[in-house]
Structures are given as structure tokens and as C-alpha cells.
Write a structure and sequence with these properties.
With 100 residues, the protein is of the alpha+beta class. It has two helices and four strands. It starts with a strand and ends in a 5-residue tail after the last strand.
Length: 100
């Protein structure tokens, strides 16, 4: 059964352009990764917070993606993303409740 995973990126205002450029460059590969059904993005301008709503085939598929992303992005990219944020991204996982 599919899962919904949200990710919040609390972006430093002075790094907003850099963060958005990196996301625009990186999200196509995420959307194309096996098991990714869809990703919707939302932006809170007042708090410079980017919120992703991701739908995956399973938690295992998303974890496989994260492992791939960390392995292929390299330390410099991960350091660059971290430098744009106030804190590490906040991940939350939600199971579908079709019976409700």
C-alpha cells in the first residue's frame, strides 16, 4: 500500500534562491525514481518554508531513494543543501487509511 511522506525545508531567507535552484535541479530525478508516484511542492513565503508532499509505493521505496540520493549527490551537494536551511529537513510518514 502506498504511503505519503511530507518533507519540510526551513530555508534561510538569504539562501532562498540557492535552495530553490537546487530543488528545481534535484526534484526531476526524485520524481523519476522507481517507486515515486508523485511529489507536490508548496511554499510558505512568510516563513520561507518549502513543503513537499510525496507519494511512494512503500516506505522501503522512499528509503531506497534516500540511500541513492545520499550516495550519488556527494558530500558537497549535501553540505550545500544543509547550508541553506535553519535545521535538517523534517520528514513525516503517513499510512493510507482507505477504511475511513
Amino acid at each position: 500500500m502506498s504511503v505519503m511522506i511530507t518533507v519540510e525545508f526551513k530555508i534561510r531567507p538569504e539562501k532562498l534562491d540557492d535552495a530553490m535552484r537546487e530543488m528545481a535541479e534535484g526534484l526531476p530525478a526524485t520524481r523519476g525514481f522507481e517507486g515515486c508516484q508523485r511529489i507536490d511542492s508548496y511554499f510558505d513565503a512568510e516563513n520561507t518554508s518549502l513543503f513537499l508532499v510525496e507519494f511512494w509505493d512503500s516506505v522501503a521505496a522512499q528509503k531506497k531513494y534516500l540511500k541513492w540520493r545520499l550516495a550519488t549527490s556527494g558530500d558537497m551537494v549535501n553540505i550545500s543543501i544543509a547550508a541553506n536551511l535553519y535545521e535538517p529537513p523534517i520528514f513525516k510518514t503517513y499510512a493510507a487509511m482507505p477504511e475511513l
